[in-house]
Amino acid sequence: MKLKVLVVDDDKNSREIIKMGLQKDYDVKVAYDGIHAYDILKKEKFDVIICDFVMNELDGLELLRRIKSEGNDAIFILITAFGTSELTIKSIQEGAYEYLSKPFKIKDLKRIIENYEKRQEAAISVENNNNTETENKDEIIANSPSFVQILKELAKIAKSDMPVLILGESGTGKEVIANLIHKYSNRKNNEFFAVNCNAIPASLLESELFGYEKGSFTGADKDKKGYFELANNGTLFLDEIGDLELDIQVKLLRVLQENTIRRVGGKKEIKLNVRYVFATNVNLENKVKDGKFRKDLYFRLKVAEIKLPPLRERKSDILPLANYFLKKYAEGGEILKLSKEAEKCLLKYDFPGNIRELENVIRNAIVKAKDSGVILKTDLNLCPIDKAENVLVDKNALIKALDDYNGNKVKVAEALGISRSTLYRMLDRHGIK
């Protein structure tokens, strides 16, 4: 069934050219201005509205506002020869699906509509095959055997008070694991503090960790507790521990040995009762060999060790994680779905930035696809577009594919890497019934 398209333009030549360019593939109707279009839309339902911006009485943006406020779910493509960056942003924020500056090529307009068709087909496919959704309420997604094993280790470690060293590449979720250790420990009702040692200048790190006494240096106008004291009776997570300067390493070693600290400028020993969790993305053994990390401190940290695998080694967690992030960043309660092609793309990609990269990819895709309800492969910016989507499949290939799949057009389209709407148009062009 062809999509119904309404072309709205007070320039007769412009609307007729658009109509002629689209009428072979779509059911096209025209309106000669905004008022006329509004009257038509009260009586008839359309899938796509292509509308000029500059028109007398009722311009394109005002028409968009009216129909959106009345719940019209047609996609709205705004076209204009007098575009500005402000108008572009405003139209998209008001609910326009796309914005085109005149002059444009009909093929560009068709591409936008075809993209919408793909989204619609993908949304239906996802609705019918919704088997990747997860009800996981935590940020820990553990379908892969390797990560399930880590959680088993964590369960044993959490109840003790021993220091824990978490190893793993950037973005693998080290802070999440540290938080989980605290959550399932006997200290869960007390404070959890996370400190990224690389985020604090080396000159300030000591005073941030140990605190300081009033008058100990210029600007120290009052006593201040450091993170060691603040975390007393709770858990202190020190991230990027492998990059600490040697003098701080010496002082940290003493804290672990004595369970006491002395503030900067202070003379009194302060007793501590803290659970320590450390993390790094560097190889500490190599650092020890190079003389950049103290051997005695390394063995103090290495009482219990958890190694987090990179995301590329836990492929079965990618889709559940992606669906978790779709829920986490859903706007207005509407959770977007991943198309099958988008899922395949995510599973093929190695994610050098690990979970953090996946999270950012999904957040970016949500912005691109929020008006369509489904995320396509093209929204991910990870995988190349299949060449089959941009070429005309020859008649013999179409006939063979139809024969191979017993005329099942859904399977034929999937095999050729094109949308069903594109397949129907190719069949029509080649005169294949």
CATH architecture grouping of the largest domain: 3-Layer(aba) Sandwich
Biggest beta sheet summary: 5 strands, parallel
Query: What helical percentage do the residues reach?
Result: 40-55%
Please name the CATH topology of the largest domain. Rossmann fold
User: So what's the CATH class of the largest domain?
Assistant: Alpha Beta
Structural class of the secondary elements?
alpha/beta
Q: Tell me the overall shape.
A: elongated
User: Cα distance, first to last residue?
Assistant: 15 Å
| Domain module count | 4
Number of strands: 14
Strand content: 5-15%
Task: Describe it.
By secondary structure, the chain is an alpha/beta fold. It folds into four domains: 4-117, 3-Layer(aba) Sandwich (Rossmann fold); 145-308, P-loop containing nucleotide triphosphate hydrolases (Rossmann fold), CATH 3.40.50; 312-380, Helicase, Ruva Protein, domain 3 (Orthogonal Bundle), CATH 1.10.8; 387-429, Arc Repressor Mutant, subunit A. It has 19 helices and 14 strands. Helix 6 packs across helix 7, helix 13 packs across helix 15 (354-369) and helix 17 crosses helix 18 (409-416). It is elongated.
Compact description:
With 433 residues, this protein is an alpha/beta fold. It is built from 19 helices and 14 strands.
